[in-house]
Amino acid sequence: MSAINSDNISITPFYHQDTGTWSYVVTDQPTGCCAIIDPVLDFDLTSGKASFDSAQQLIEHVQSNQLKLEWILETHAHADHLTAAQYIKQELGGKIAIGAGIKDVQQHFANTLNLDLPADGSQFDILTHKGDSLALGESHFIAHPTPGHTDDSMSYEIAGNIFIGDTFFHPDLGTARCDFPGGSADKLFQSLTFLTSFPETFNLWLCHDYPKDRDAVARTTVAEQRENIHFKKSGGNPSAYAKLRNERDSTLSVPRLIYPSLQVNIRAGQFPEDESNGRKYLKIPFSLQKP
Ligand SMILES: [Fe+2]
């Protein structure tokens, strides 16, 4: 765990080993106002048991530093982990924000999973749009749509730092997949190009890292991501990138936690209602492959 200071903003990353996810606490130091980005709920798929151990680390950081939580920011509706946003809001307050494109994601998964869910984003406190400003003490985040991985993907810029969600991964690993509903390699290429248009010293904070022979990395820079293996291989050509991306996506399996994740994440972290026996259940769509 480390903190990096820049223009009175401190950033503390937290790594969730099971899903390779980075969560962040971002603090405006003069005022102690803070935001949590992409908090993770611990979830065991086999037993269906969830717990708050990882979320508790974020909460303890906020409490032990006597910070005031203003925002819980989701960079998108994640398909690889469940969000702890609702639990953190209950414990610390703050407003849960996500990109306005969440409505399309809700509509798709409400249909796929036959959920009784209004696809209007009302489960979240704030839906963010291009250029929105979210105050954080004496500073503020600016919302930048960065679609491609999903339609609701939003990056958040503050004081020379951008939390980029699933766009770039570590430069040696490439970029996010684009084969989810609403995903588009063409759109992701535009988002990657947009992110590399910032000054080369800007920090681009990753949503994930999946290291094999090195420690997990949270912070990259614009200069480093201009050399990203997928971005560079495309030679700045959108159709070359789309070809590379789509070929790679055709080899990827469905994420292990996609259905549990989406059922919780499109509800802003709220769990399904109890059924008649007092227990909650998560659905998996069943389909039979013909021999
Ligand atoms: Fe994702």
From TrEMBL:
This is MBL fold metallo-hydrolase. SMART domains: Lactamase_B. The keyword Nucleotidyltransferase does not apply. Residues 20-208 form the Metallo-beta-lactamase domain. Pfam families: Lactamase_B. The keyword Metal-binding applies. Keywords: Metal-binding.
